[in-house]
Amino acid sequence: MARVKDVCRHVRSKNAGPFWVTIDFFFDGPESFARYADSPVLGPELFARLFGADPALVKRFAAPSLNVVKVSYPRAAPQGGMVERDMHAGQQYVRLLDVELDAA
Questions:
Q1: Residue 49: pLDDT over 80
Q2: pTM beyond 0.90
Q3: Where are the domains positioned within the chain?
Q4: Do 55 and 47 meet the contact criterion of CB atoms below 8 Å apart?
């Protein structure tokens, strides 16, 4: 099975406001995008398991012309709180790199 880091040329995470995080999956080409963009593995259950997000609130957007999938989920605590460990959400993507994808 292909892992995220094998089929994406870049994966990044960032703030989407003080209450949300967005992960961008930049697939390495249209073939990888067509094969893996709709993979059920990149669904709400993954973000619930890895980040404690409510699966009902996870949002997924595809941009086929860019070979990109964006997934947004609510933060467990607002940005800048007392227990904040990644204020800009720049390190959140790391947990996703070794996720194995099924072809859609």
A1: yes
A2: yes
A3: 2-98
A4: yes
